[in-house]
Amino acid sequence: MILTAQQRHLTTVFLKIFLRDRRSIFFSLFFPVIFMTVFSLSSSREQEAISIGIVNDSSNATAANFVQLLTESPLFDVTTGEAELLRAELLAG
After folding, report:
1. Which residues contact 19 (CB under 8 A, 6 or more apart)?
2. What residues are paired with 51 via a beta bridge?
3. What whole-number distance in Å separates Cα of residue 59 and Cα of residue 75?
4. Could you give the CA distance from residue 41 to residue 29 in angstroms, rounded to a whole number?
5. How many of the other CB atoms lie within 10 Å of CB of 66?
6. Distance CA 74, CA 23 (A)
7. Does 9 have pLDDT greater than 70?
8. 20, pLDDT greater than 90
9. d(C-alpha 80, C-alpha 54), whole Å
10. Which region among 2-6, 36-40, 67-71, 84-88 has the lowest average model confidence (pLDDT)?
């Protein structure tokens, strides 16, 4: 994407305005980090695995590797199968 001279000028002007306002820098950069830290410390208990169902209609090696990585991850409880079967399990609860 090629920027025109006017777009470069506007980008430079808005970046200078942003960098001169300390509150903008704080709320854009530091506040999200503080927010994530507070909530991660408040919920430091063990996380349950997220149950997901995967329908792998691809015969691609990349798709198979992706499914394998998700299956090996302790963050996810992976169920593989056909779309209709997984949809029925989802609706059943």
Report:
1. 25
2. 77
3. 25
4. 19
5. 14
6. 39
7. yes
8. yes
9. 5
10. 36-40
List phi, psi (to 5°) of 55.
-105, 110
- Name 70's Cβ contacts closer than 8 Å, sequence gap at least 6: 52, 54, 76, 78
Model confidence, pTM: 0.48
Please write down the HEC assignment for all residues of 17-82.
HHHHCHHHHHHHHHHHHHHHHHHHHHCCCCCCCEEEEECCCCCCHHHHHHHHHHHHCCCEEEEECC
Q: Is the pLDDT of residue 43 over 80?
A: no
Q: How confident is the model at residue 90 (pLDDT cuts 50, 70, 90)?
A: confident
Q: Tokens for 76?
A: 């996810």
How crowded is residue 48: how many other Cβ atoms within 10 Å of its Cβ? Answer: 8
